[in-house]
């Protein structure tokens, strides 16, 4: 070894120092990956940015400090990065005779929970059929307030989700706006009457752009991509239980970059503007809805 080191113009100490660094780096990678897998056990498709935030405290106990780019590279090297799926099914039918309401949230600044609720329906492919998940999400805290999973696209699923959300309100005296697309489910008399009887203002998208209901679309995407709800290999009852568990994990454990990396349940206890920890991406003019 001494002769080889001399041939390359290096000392033996330099050689062994390099070996120690390689061993230390390998151990560091193993520790990081183990914590990544621990988080992914419950949040199977959580993104790398959220992982980077969640791992900071865990890695501090090992005196390990990693950057975002390091984690991206490590995840990519081990095939742990997430591939996004494209949306295929359409769940909104706005070609109907029922009354459509104006958009009340254009330019509205969110500064408290239960100021705006957003709602939407997404699909989940089961073994031999489709299931439809109705969601009510608080736009400020991103907490899922109500949900219902059914085998049909009737208004009843949306009504069930809304009734659950109303029952979970923490600030029932606050003025609240319900925002949705112009789907027949949200324009139905029974649904609108339920909103009005609970003093909830009715707001709807105007031009069909997904940016007009961006928060609801985003929550749908999180549940389907990070929590692997795009399709289900089990039956309706088992899928319903899986949805219940995943929504609980989403509300209680998943930090949101748009809520200062608080979980939805933590953010729902706050008041005042929440710090956004992400860089805004390009969007078309006049399509910004909520600040």
Automatic annotation (TrEMBL):
<dbReference type="InterPro" id="IPR012337">
    <property type="entry name" value="RNaseH-like_sf"/>
</dbReference>
<dbReference type="InterPro" id="IPR050900">
    <property type="entry name" value="Transposase_IS3/IS150/IS904"/>
</dbReference>
<dbReference type="InterPro" id="IPR036397">
    <property type="entry name" value="RNaseH_sf"/>
</dbReference>
<dbReference type="GO" id="GO:0015074">
    <property type="term" value="P:DNA integration"/>
</dbReference>
<dbReference type="InterPro" id="IPR001584">
    <property type="entry name" value="Integrase_cat-core"/>
</dbReference>
<dbReference type="InterPro" id="IPR048020">
    <property type="entry name" value="Transpos_IS3"/>
</dbReference>
<protein>
    <recommendedName>
        <fullName>Integrase catalytic domain-containing protein</fullName>
    </recommendedName>
</protein>
<dbReference type="Pfam" id="PF00665">
    <property type="entry name" value="rve"/>
</dbReference>
<dbReference type="GO" id="GO:0003676">
    <property type="term" value="F:nucleic acid binding"/>
</dbReference>
<feature type="domain" description="Integrase catalytic">
    <location>
        <begin position="109"/>
        <end position="272"/>
    </location>
</feature>
């Amino acid at each position: 070894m001494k002769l080889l080191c001399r041939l390359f113009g290096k000392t033996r100490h330099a050689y062994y120092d390099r070996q120690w660094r390689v061993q230390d780096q390998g151990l560091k990678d193993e520790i990081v990956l183990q914590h990544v897998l621990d988080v992914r056990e419950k949040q199977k498709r959580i993104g790398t940015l959220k992982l980077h935030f969640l791992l900071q405290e865990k890695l501090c106990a090992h005196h390990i400090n990693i950057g975002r780019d390091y984690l991206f590279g490590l995840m990519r090297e081990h095939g742990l990065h997430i591939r996004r799926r494209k949306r295929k099914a359409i769940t909104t039918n706005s070609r109907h005779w029922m009354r459509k309401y104006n958009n009340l949230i254009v330019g509205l600044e969110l500064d408290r929970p239960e100021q705006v609720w957003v709602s939407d329906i997404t699909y989940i492919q089961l073994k031999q059929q489709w299931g439809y998940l109705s969601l009510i999400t608080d736009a400020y805290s991103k907490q899922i307030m109500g949900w219902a999973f059914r085998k049909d696209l009737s208004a009843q699923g949306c009504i069930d989700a809304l009734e659950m959300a109303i029952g979970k309100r923490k600030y029932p005296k606050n003025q609240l706006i319900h925002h949705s697309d112009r789907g027949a489910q949200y324009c139905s008399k029974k649904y609108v009457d339920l909103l009005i009887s609970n003093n909830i203002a009715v707001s709807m998208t105007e031009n069909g752009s997904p940016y007009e209901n961006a928060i609801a679309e985003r929550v749908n995407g999180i549940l389907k991509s990070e929590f692997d709800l795009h399709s289900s290999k089990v039956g309706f009852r088992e899928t319903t239980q899986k949805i219940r568990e995943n929504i609980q994990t989403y509300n209680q454990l998943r930090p949101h970059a748009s809520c200062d990396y608080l979980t939805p349940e933590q953010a729902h206890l706050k008041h005042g503007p929440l710090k956004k920890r992400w860089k805004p991406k390009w969007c078309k003019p006049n399509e910004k809805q909520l600040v």
